[in-house]
Amino acid sequence: MNAATEPVPPPPAADGAQLVIDALRLNGLDTIYGLPGIPITDLMRRAQGAGIRVLSFRHEQSAGYAASIAGFLTRKPGVCLTVSAPGFLNGLNALAHATVNCFPMILISGSSEREVVDLQQGAYEELDQLAIAKPVAKAAFRVLHAEDIGTGVARAIRAAVSGRPGGVYLDLPAKLFTETLDAGAAERSLIKVVDPAPRQHPDQEAVERALGLLRGAKRPLIVLGKGAAYAQADADIRALVERTGIPYLPMSMAKGLLPDTHEQCAAAARSYVLPAADVVMLVGARLNWLLSHGKGQTWGGRGPKESGGQRFIQIDISPQEPDSNVRIDAPVVGDIGSCVAALLAGTGAGWKKPAAEWTDAIGQQKAANVARMAERLAKSPSPMSFHSALAVVRDIVKANPDAMLVNEGANALDFTRSIVDVYKPRRRLDVGTWGIMGVGMGYSVAAAVVTGQPVIAIEGDSAFGFSGMEVETICRYRLPVCVVVMNNNGVYRGTDVNPTESTDPAPTVFVRNARYDRIIEAFGGVGAHATTPLELRAAMEEALRSRKPTLINAVIDETAGTESGRIRSLNPTANRK
Ligand code: ADP
Ligand code: TPW
Ligand code: MG
User: What is the mean pLDDT of residues 446-470?
Assistant: First the structure.
């Protein structure tokens, strides 16, 4: 047969798996956090073959947390891919976490044949996943035909990132993956989402109302939340704070939006400024339990439900957020970038900064608290206290301001938040709105992958246990993660005893003197055992220098922690003791 008579091959058909890959890539979703198995093993392999970065975890929950925090860091939905029923359920916690924390994420799970699942005939891993995802997701979709995959992915992206971001579930029944479309139809079925998170400009009247309140304030305060960190409007937020001269309080994941060492930072005088302020401007922060719902003693109210009399401005993209707990006198609804820009435009020359009476009083409170803290940090007891260990972490973070700081635990969380200064935006990632344990290693993987920066994970020994097996993942991908396990032998502390004759330990204590460092050695990482601040410092410095996966077992006084850490007031029984 000569060349002229050779039949022209038809354009290659695309199957459902290919359409998923193409739809993700077309929309710039270049990383998948997941765990393989029926029916998605081949999809993961082919995604990797197509140039998507595929990070394969040891548990879907960690993959999901990784995806959620990738969403927070990049403003693109983090993608988590799991198998059906059990894999889906393992990922569900992270989906809920993403929704609760306003992080954009898409959980994609394979599922079993609809006809069999719906008749409950006992399909392989049978579960009505869509129904279960709905209550914890911002949105949930199922695709039944390969030609709709492009639409499904587009809808999932828009739902995840537009307005208040959140977790979206996308259900892909197994049979989709092998369904084919001819090449032309495949291409036509895909959607490149245009402007997935449209700006939402605030109403000028709302902006004026807010400015009016600020102008009339004697003791104004700005509270920056993780929504402000997410918005990536760093320069304008800093300009607004500095131009108005108003003291600000960063919520934990907003630390570093301005450096914690900024003279207007009121974090070290938190318990003074909240009740004393007369006008409070919330920027991407909800008045939930973390801010005592805007009332009660924290705010100077007489009773637990009483307001302290503050007037509130709230900048938020959700029009439903204002008045959720107390009256919001000046809601400014819009995206933070646009809202802050509009406020800035109204604070030109002639803006009167707050009176020295207010800023000096805060300065004095800060100085007293900082001095008290410095005294505690300077002590070097044996075994180490949280303070003597965290004084080291504080220095290391100061010397490496671009490093990512991951943090979970109770005392290990609270002390790190108050002791370790953060210098740049979105460097601190923690347990978030639920105070959830188990985010540590998933967050560390995503933080390293997304930013390329070294990661320092400060972990309570209990907190670490929730995702500890992912140190294998960290070693496998050779990520520059330095995990410090603050080992006080248990949940909150290691001293509880079982009051009965039984030899069972108390529910809060672990194996004493455990050597967490040896876990990472099993996978070729570097383990270190630190009983003094000097040893801790040397091991952390080496980890940052070498960028090798490292786990440091930092031995902390087992009597040092308090039950529930800083949130003891929420623990109904601890306070009876
Ligand atoms: P924190 O825990 O730091 O106090 P929250 O999670 O309670 O913060 O609040 C974050 C708030 O930020 C949410 O109410 C959310 O709607 C809002 N938000 C998130 N992204 C944006 C954005 N780009 N523009 C405006 N508001 C946003
Ligand atoms: C998913 C309850 C809050 S803090 C904590 C638990 C179990 C561990 C505290 O011990 P750790 O820290 O990490 O050793 P430290 O320094 O005080 O000793 N399950 C989930 N989330 C939460 N929040 C809990 C249980 C909890
Ligand atoms: Mg502990």
Answer: 98
Tokens of 550: 């490292």
- Enter the tokens of residue 103: 């992080």
**Which of 101, 289, 462 gets mutated to test ligand 2 (max ligand atoms within 8 A of its CB)?**
462
**pLDDT interval class at 2 (50, 70, 90):** low
* Domains 13-189 and 379-575 are alike in CATH topology: yes
What pLDDT does 177 receive?
Answer: 97
Mean pLDDT, rounded, for 189-207? 98
List pocket residues of ligand 2, CB cut-off 6 Å. Answer: 409-412, 435-438, 460-463, 486, 488, 491-492, 561, 565
Q: Any idea which fold 204-363 has?
A: Rossmann fold (3.40.50)
- C-alpha 498/C-alpha 242 separation (Å) is 54
Quick: pLDDT tens for 389-408. Answer: 999 999 999 999 999 999 99
The C-alpha torsion from 70 through 74 and 75 to 80, rounded to 10°, is -30
pLDDT of residue 7: 80
The CATH number of 379-575 is 3.40.50.970
Contact yes or no for 450/289 (Cβ under 8 A):
no
Q: Give the residue among 113, 251, 88 at the shortest CA–CA distance from 167.
A: 88
Report the pocket of ligand 1 as residue ranges, CB < 6 Å: 101-102, 164-165, 225-227, 230-231, 251, 253-254, 284-286, 288, 290, 316-318, 321, 335-336, 433
Q: Which atom of ligand 2 is nearest to the CA of 434?
A: 23
Q: Which CATH number fits domain 13-189: 3.40.50.970, 1.10.357.140, 3.30.460.80, 4.10.320.10?
A: 3.40.50.970
- Which of 492, 496, 553, 566 has the most ligand 2 atoms within 8 A of CB, as the residue to mutate? 492
CA distances from 403 to 17, 331, 523 (A): 37, 35, 23
Domain locations in the chain as residue ranges? 13-189, 204-363, 379-575
User: Which residue has its alpha carbon closest to ligand 1 atom 22?
Assistant: 335
- Closest ligand 1 atom number to CA of residue 254: 3
The model's pLDDT over 544-554, given as tens digits with 9 standing for 90+, comes to: 999 999 999 99
Ligand 3 (single-atom ion) residues, CB below 5 Å: 460-461, 488
- pTM for this model (two decimals): 0.97
pLDDT of residue 12: 80
155: pLDDT confidence band, cut at 50, 70 and 90? very high
Q: How far apart are CA 100 and CA 452, in angstroms?
A: 27
Return mean pLDDT, the chain: 96
**Which residues, in sequence order, are bridge partners of residue 527?**
551
